[in-house]
Task: inverse folding
């Protein structure tokens, strides 16, 4: 899950300025304006949807947010290839994609650590974060920058977006089958702390 969200986020975020400049011919001094709503969408997702991960259910919401953001990404890729988008509509689509994806990604950080005892959770998060950035986060910007090229052919980048959507959807499937039902449970009930003493064990 963390590899897929790192790939999608870094692929889009770090290549977005190039897309605006090469395909939509946005002036360099105006590119920053398009990142503000993009950032708002990223922030609003976890704030507005976060509570649902502990009420509707962690696995259900991960599948929904990952899967729906992947579908929206695929739709936006098709529209991009058809040439019907402009810088504003492209940004609005990215806002919708990452409104969902950022909420799912935030939950993924918790999910990968909750199967570990309390004493190991912070180490687990840092370990999986490092792996996800190394595998997905580092490769994605390089790959997508090469797909953009000089901005004359939308085909390669469109394929890249489809691949990113498939990878993100796969992350949701992984969350559904391998995630834990952690909603409305104490962390100690999911994985017992290493320092806990079983009921039947006598203290020396």
Result:
């Amino acid at each position: 899950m963390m590899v897929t969200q790192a790939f999608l986020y870094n692929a889009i975020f770090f290549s977005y300025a190039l897309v605006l400049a090469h395909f939509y011919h946005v002036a360099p001094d105006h590119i920053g304006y398009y990142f503000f709503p993009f950032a708002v969408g990223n922030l609003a997702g976890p704030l507005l949807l976060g509570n649902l991960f502990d009420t509707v259910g962690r696995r259900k919401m991960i599948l929904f947010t990952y899967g729906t953001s992947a579908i929206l990404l695929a739709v936006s890729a098709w529209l991009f290839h058809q040439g019907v988008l402009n810088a504003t509509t492209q940004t609005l689509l990215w806002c919708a994609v990452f409104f969902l994806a950022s909420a799912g990604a935030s939950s993924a950080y918790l999910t990968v650590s909750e199967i570990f005892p309390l004493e190991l959770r912070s180490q687990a998060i840092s370990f999986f974060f490092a792996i996800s950035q190394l595998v997905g986060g580092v490769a994605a910007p390089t790959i997508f920058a090469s797909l953009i090229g000089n901005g004359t052919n939308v085909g390669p980048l469109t394929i890249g977006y489809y691949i990113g959507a498939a990878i993100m959807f796969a992350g949701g499937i992984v969350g559904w089958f391998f995630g834990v039902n952690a909603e409305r449970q104490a962390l100690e009930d999911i994985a017992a702390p290493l320092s806990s003493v079983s009921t039947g064990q006598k203290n020396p």
User: Anything to note?
Assistant: Confidence is low (pLDDT under 50) at residues 199-204.
